[in-house]
Structure of FadR family transcriptional regulator:
Amino acid sequence: MVKPIATRNLHGQVIHELGRLIVSGEIKPGQSLPREELLAERMSMSRTALREAMKVLSAKGLIESRQKTGTRVRETIHWNQLDADVLAWRCESMPTEDFVEKLVEMREIIEPAAAAAAARRRTAEQLVAVEAAYEAMAAARNLDEWTAADLAFHEAVLHATNNELMISLFSVIETALGTYFALSASTASNFKYSLPHHQKVYEAIRRRQPEMARQAMQKMVADSRSNIRRHRKAKA
Amino acid sequence: MVKPIATRNLHGQVIHELGRLIVSGEIKPGQSLPREELLAERMSMSRTALREAMKVLSAKGLIESRQKTGTRVRETIHWNQLDADVLAWRCESMPTEDFVEKLVEMREIIEPAAAAAAARRRTAEQLVAVEAAYEAMAAARNLDEWTAADLAFHEAVLHATNNELMISLFSVIETALGTYFALSASTASNFKYSLPHHQKVYEAIRRRQPEMARQAMQKMVADSRSNIRRHRKAKA
DNA sequence: TATGAGGTAAAAGTACTACAAATAGACGGT
DNA sequence: ACCGTCTATTTGTAGTACTTTTACCTCATA
């Protein structure tokens, strides 16, 4: 689930490093990178490996290379913002407040719709997966177990939509939940408070009640949104 | 807007070629590619260029390379289905009926929500962009002009949400509209029939009426969905 | 027979070099 | 002042050599 990012490869490290620099804004759009030969030398690596890393970044829409001109960082409009790596890099360097808002907004749009679709089309096996995740949440004895089960729950719901485009949005939910747990770590005491919400969603999906599922999920996300707000105020 | 796909680079071509083969299912998940040296020779290119192409595909989650084992196609779950290229490759080899359904479902979820958000948060400039696109649709004198303006309209709405995660979903809308026009080409005569829908959306965004915008957009998408259905039946 | 240590080879990963292709920008001619 | 041409710079491609990882085979041992 959560990838180790061990990335022991050389270009893996470089992808990560450059990606983070760009996404965090330390290298701004329009700005151009040193030419390959020089950059490779500066990072003490071969041009070959560097180029492979750059290809990956360009695949994610972060950079663009042209002969003679060199390589420049593209406008944020062109970034694959939904790419798991891009999202992760964005969160690494302290997610800004408004980014968290945007993540929550996405959840509010995606998840209720997904829950409804799941209630409509889920197979028996997919229901089992949702149930299993719910049970794991109920049984969780610490925050780690809870977060793992929580993620599994939301992923199972997305899978139950039987729409792979939907499933690909899991990267967003994953990131959103990740930052949520990071922000509301204070609630480590009663981390299970949202269990009833999850139960309602699960029940609605089981009973094939799309509208019920939508509303339950909507409440859950709205609740977690207000929770973040509360936490932020408490800290301010 | 629509990228030329000229992709004169060698590895650009290879990315496209391999990507299409994988996404279309001609090379199935789990299956492994010939080893780099051999594949490079078979495609009459250098290993260097081939590897750069493969890095891009692995960045999109399509393949995975490990030493000794070789390179294998990953399960579809891991594909970045929302990536513009992946979507395009998928449509190139005859989009299946259920894929079109999934695209429409995504539109039904995303666009009404986007319209509502745009009505809430659009700036003056963003409104101008939406208006300009609408005017262009009204002024369109042939199908090409219409499709271009239509795309611009939907893109402008997404931009007006001021949420870049939302904006990244434009690739999905673009693909959906593309296949829509491809399918309902028969309506080339009265291609402007959906103009009133667009007007309502535009008006609601102008007047900052989120719920109105949501409903108008919802109707628009629902209408185009039923239009596809009708067309399919007519053909069958 | 099972099991585990160790060796081997095969494939990807990295490095270096050389050259090709494109093109921004300078140069020069009209 | 304009327009073609030339040049230098930077990415793109190729080829080769070597390194690292690791699946799998071998064989000794329990």
Summary: Confidence is low (pLDDT under 50) at residues 1-6 of chain A.
